[in-house]
Design brief:
Strand content: 5-15%
Largest sheet: 6 strands, antiparallel
Bound molecules: 2-acetamido-2-deoxy-1-O-phosphono-alpha-D-glucopyranose, magnesium ion
Shape: globular
Helix content: 40-55%
Order of helices and strands: HEEEHEEEEHHHHEEEEHHHHHH
Number of helices: 12
Radius of gyration: 20 Å
Distance between the termini: 53 Å
Number of strands: 11
């Protein structure tokens, strides 16, 4: 608690800190909203980085700075069409000009500006919202499309690399024989049935059919900020996983998050389904800005990407449940099992609607 208050004081732009509260639903880092008695900047975001996950947090900050500087210059050279607001999050500095602060116990803290007049949602409300979420990802990729991916450091090795997740799953399974239950059996079998296909994106990358680009890594619905007044998307936040990757990870993640109207935390996992109409809206918004830089090969793997990233997240949650919840924060012992089942059901629904989803993608090319 003392460290939390001290951390808030390190980054506060001006004024006095009047409140600090937990904020958002992050599964990895701890996030707080700090309120100040300063009219010009009433809030900022304070975060404690999970250094078990991000082993080199200073490199995460380096990527954030590379990213913001690139986008700032790009927007200066080629401003957006009038009437469109787009915000890039700003890293706050400490009094001695550092982009982070390490507390006496070794925790890594950082401050980020709060985007005024905006909010995010856990699920997509309607078709318009869907288009805006897709637009936001398209804008993000577009603004980075001329940044060589080598300019970004790989801050989370193995992130979205399916063979690595399967390998880790096998290791965990070898060490922790899970207690049998219908849900666990379902998960075990679900994974086995998809194992052979699961390297599809990494294989395509290996064959040179897909190439690395700067990606967001975590473009789920609640990372897209919506302007309260206009309802337009104005930013994508949570830049921890900005690094080289396949745009397919991002598109897949955006769709698996956006097209699941019950949301990833629902307890009604048996009711989960993928909504193709929302996928059409998201892709429409996305392609309005991404069409120019997607190749024919990129389109070929879009369906696989949606199916794979849902499966991948299910596998990651399931493995973490078996391992004893060491990666994702959990509110109860079976929380990550419940989350895994949601993603597996979503994957099943995607598979059942393969034809419809493929034809939506085809019609949009
Ligand atoms: C994690 O912590 P959060 O909520 O921003 C995870 C993502 C998952 C997401 C699922 C670094 O993101 O990959 O898609 O949970 N981030 C990391 O909600 O593993
Ligand atoms: Mg995240």
């Amino acid at each position: 608690m003392d460290n939390l208050v001290s951390a808030a004081h390190q980054f506060k732009p001006q004024g006095e800190v009047i409140a600090i509260e937990e904020y958002g639903n992050g599964n990895v880092n701890d996030t707080f909203l700090v309120t100040l008695d300063f009219k010009e900047e009433k809030h900022f975001i304070l975060q404690r980085i999970n250094t078990q996950v991000f082993r080199r947090p200073e490199l995460v900050m380096l990527n954030m700075r590379t990213f913001s500087e690139h986008v700032r210059q790009r927007l200066q050279r080629a401003p957006l069409s009038p009437g469109r607001r787009w915000e890039v999050v700003r890293v706050l500095l400490t009094e001695d000009g550092q982009d982070h602060w390490i507390d006496p116990e070794g925790s890594f803290w950082r401050g980020i500006n709060f985007i005024d007049g905006s909010q995010s949602f856990e699920t997509i409300k309607d078709i318009e919202h869907g288009k805006e979420v897709g637009f936001a990802l398209g804008m993000f990729h577009n603004l980075l499309s001329d940044l060589p991916s080598e300019k970004l450091v790989d801050t989370l090795e193995g992130f979205h690399i399916m063979p690595r997740y399967l390998h880790h799953y096998d290791e965990v399974l070898a060490q922790n024989r899970p207690r049998k239950s219908p849900e666990v059996d379902y998960g075990l079998q679900f994974i086995e049935e998809r194992r052979a296909w699961a390297n599809v994106l990494e294989n395509a990358k290996g064959q040179g059919r897909l190439r690395l680009r700067p990606i967001h890594g975590d473009p789920k619905v609640n990372n897209v900020m919506m302007d309260n007044a206009t309802g337009q998307a104005i930013s994508i936040v949570d830049l921890d996983t900005v690094k080289p990757g396949l745009v397919h990870y991002d598109i897949g993640d955006c769709l698996r998050s956006g097209c699941n109207p019950l949301g990833e935390e629902t307890e009604q996992w048996e009711m989960v389904r993928f909504d193709p109409e929302l996928s059409q809206a998201i892709l429409q918004g996305y392609l309005s800005l991404a069409r120019d830089f997607l190749t024919q090969n990129d389109y070929e793997y879009l369906y696989d990407a949606v199916r794979l990233i849902s499966f991948e997240l299910g596998l990651r949650f399931f493995t973490d449940y078996l391992e004893g919840n060491v990666y994702f924060k959990a509110n109860h012992q079976k929380h990550n099992l419940a989350r895994a089942l949601v993603q597996f059901k979503l994957t099943e629904s995607i598979e059942a609607q393969k034809k419809a989803i493929r034809s939506i993608i085809r019609d949009m090319r």
